[in-house]
Structure formats: structure tokens, C-alpha cells
Design brief:
Number of strands: 11
Helix content: 40-55%
Largest sheet: 7 strands, mixed
Structural class: alpha+beta
Strand content: 15-25%
Oligomer: single chain
Order of helices and strands: EHEEEHEEHEEEEHEHHHHHHH
């Protein structure tokens, strides 16, 4: 939930817009409609930026496009052609999403005069395919690279970033096709501004058949995307807590019972001159030896099991490893403290008894324990 997704989800909302392709059959008409929508929504009080994209992050939809630089030898093998995710966006999209600009510039309204002449790429595309400073490079059939933006986690922060090629919506190179044209609208707004209701009214003013579909904040979209891993985490955490409590309860009872059972033996030691402090140290030492005898093979077994089942566990982990040091320190420490706590009461009891009481194995205080 707290990992940066590559954009700013705070104070931003999004919804989908669908139009029948037969009502706006050509690219120019579709582009003009979306520009009117964007201009109308940008004028809503509280809205600071408005942008449109064909596919929002976390939507699960993918369009792949191949590209080549002008001046390079043409690649004839289709499997060797560089590929990237294609995203068609409007001017204002990067500002509305809060995607940082790393170099060059973003799309501007002036680019509408020749939308096919400009492209924007992300950092992953630069790192994977380009060695030269990317701004100003020409792509075959896709114009000039005018900017580089930060990486966005399209499939979630638990998946690696991918190369993305951003094109200006309406470039005519990649027609939408189909019976329905879909776009997502992103509105960045002032904190607390109720923009979604106003956006629905503005859409009807632009076209009476338009509606804001699936209106949600970007934060809600992120929460929904991690709902399943959060459920897994809660379930695993609940089972792990139950296992830890059962182990702690059992260890506490066994250690306490064993320490109480040895009180008569401590009476013999006291008869031969052992002091209460000696008895306390002896009881605590016995308990710590028990802890060591369990923790050492337990840790070794855990490492062996992780080697066997680590590949099954890794997909459930995020930014931690199956051999995370904190786990292998805190869990033994927890059990160590449980053993120590279980031995304190018997140690104190043994130290307080006099020799006669300790030698009487039937004495009630020699048999009593908190859990046994």
C-alpha cells in the first residue's frame, strides 16, 4: 500500500468514458470529442489538471508496439524488434497523474497540429534499449522523442516496470477499432474537492449520451489492486500468530512444570549449602538450556525447509526474502523470552522455600505451577 506506484494517487480521481464508434467514426471526430471533454472538465472548480488515456495503470489491459530508431539498420527478424507497452494519452495526462518528468517536455496543446510527430518514453525503455541521450532521437514512423517520464508500475508494485511508449491520442497510427471507443479520464483536484459529481454533469453537457463509468479515486484503485495479497497476508498472519501463541503457551507450561518438579532436588542442594541466589541461577540455567536445545535444531530445520519451499513462498513476499534476518532474530528471541518468563515463577518459589519444605515432594508449593 505504501510503495510508490510511479505516480501521485493522492487528490486524483478517474473514471471511464465510452462512445459508440458509429457516432464518431473517424479519428478526427473522436479526438475533437475527447478534447472538448478534457477542456470542459478542466474548467470544473477545484480541478487543477485533466488528462485522458486509453488504458490506466492497474487496468490489466496491454497493447504492445515495436519500434526502431531512424539511422539504424532495419531489423528484419520480428523477434528482435524492440517492444514496449503503448499508451495513447492527451496533453495534460502526465500532470493529472502526477508522473514525474525526467527530461525534455510533456505533450503540449501545440502538438495537436501534428500528433504523429512526437513521442514520449519512460526510463525503463531508455535503460533497456537506448544508450544515447534519448530526447531528440527519431523513431521510425513515430516522430521525435520529446520527453522522458518516470516509470509507472502498470501491473502493480509487485511486478517489474516495463518499457512504455507514450503517443499523443489521435495520431492516427493506431486506430481504436471495435464498436465502442473507451477512454479513461483522470482529474487532479484540490484536497477534498467534490469533482466526480460535477464531472458527470459536464459530460452530459458535452454529449447527452456520455456518462462517468466506474468513478473512483486513484487511491481506491490501488487498494482494490492489493485486496487479494492483503487477504493472503491477513490469513497467513493470523495462522502465524496462532502458531506462535500455541508454541509460547506450550513452552511456558512445560518449562514451568519441569522447574516446579525439581524443587525437591533444589532442597537437597540447599541442605548442602546452596543459597537462594544459587537456586535461582540453577533454575534459570536449566530453562535456558531447554530453550537452546529447541531453538538450535529448530533454526536449522527452518533453513532446510526454506531451501525446499522457498520458491513457493517467494511470490507471496514483497521486498522481503524467505531468509529475512529480522524473522530469524525476532522469533527465537520471542521463544527465549517465553522460556525465561516461564522459569521466573518456579525460580522465585524454589528460592523462597526453606530446606524442610523443599525436601517434602508432596508439599503443595512444590507441585503448583501456573499452567501445569
Amino acid at each position: 500500500m505504501s510503495a510508490p506506484p510511479g505516480y501521485e494517487p493522492q487528490n486524483a480521481a478517474a473514471f471511464e468514458v465510452q462512445i459508440a464508434a458509429d457516432r464518431y467514426p473517424d479519428t478526427a471526430g473522436q479526438t475533437a470529442l475527447f478534447d472538448r471533454i478534457r477542456e470542459s472538465l478542466a474548467a470544473i472548480p477545484g480541478v487543477t489538471h485533466a488528462g485522458i488515456v486509453d488504458t490506466l495503470p492497474l487496468s490489466g489491459e496491454r497493447a504492445i508496439i515495436g519500434f526502431q530508431r531512424i539511422g539504424e539498420e532495419p531489423i528484419t527478424d520480428p523477434n528482435q524488434v524492440p517492444r514496449a507497452l503503448l499508451r495513447r494519452v492527451s496533453p495534460g495526462y502526465f500532470r493529472a497523474m502526477g508522473i514525474p518528468l525526467r527530461g525534455g517536455r510533456v505533450f503540449e496543446e501545440s502538438d495537436r497540429a501534428n500528433p504523429a510527430a512526437v513521442s514520449i518514453i519512460n526510463e525503463s525503455l531508455v535503460q533497456r534499449y537506448l544508450s544515447d541521450p534519448p530526447v531528440g532521437l527519431e523513431l521510425r514512423g513515430m516522430g521525435q522523442i520529446v520527453g522522458v517520464v518516470g516509470d509507472v508500475y502498470e501491473d502493480g508494485v509487485d511486478s517489474p516496470t516495463e518499457p512504455i511508449l507514450y503517443r499523443l491520442d489521435g495520431d492516427g497510427l493506431m486506430p481504436g477499432g471495435g464498436d465502442v471507443i473507451r477512454r479513461s479520464v483522470v482529474l487532479r483536484h484540490a484536497p477534498g474537492a467534490p469533482v466526480l459529481d460535477a464531472a458527470a454533469a459536464r459530460l452530459r453537457e458535452v454529449d447527452g449520451e456520455l456518462a462517468a463509468l466506474n468513478p473512483r479515486t486513484l487511491e481506491d484503485r490501488i487498494r482494490e489492486s492489493v485486496a487479494q495479497p492483503r487477504l493472503y497476508a491477513l490469513l497467513m498472519g493470523a495462522f502465524a500468530l496462532a502458531a506462535a501463541l500455541l508454541a509460547a503457551w506450550g513452552v511456558f507450561g512445560v518449562v514451568g512444570f519441569q522447574a516446579n518438579a525439581r524443587i525437591p532436588a533444589h532442597g537437597v542442594r540447599m541442605a548442602f549449602g546452596a543459597t537462594p541466589a544459587d537456586i535461582r541461577r540453577l533454575v534459570l540455567g536449566d530453562a535456558l538450556r531447554i530453550a537452546a536445545l529447541g531453538l538450535v535444531p529448530g533454526l536449522l530445520l527452518a533453513f532446510v525447509l526454506i531451501r525446499v519451499a522457498g520458491s513457493e513462498l517467494s511470490p507471496l513476499l514483497f521486498e522481503v526474502t524467505p531468509v529475512d534476518p529480522a524473522v530469524y532474530v525476532l522469533v527465537p528471541l520471542l521463544l527465549f523470552l517465553v522460556v525465561l518468563a516461564a522459569s521466573l515463577q518456579p525460580a522465585a518459589t524454589a528460592a523462597r522455600l526453606n530446606v524442610v519444605q523443599a525436601l517434602r515432594s508432596e508439599h503443595p508449593r512444590a507441585r503448583r505451577s501456573w499452567f501445569a
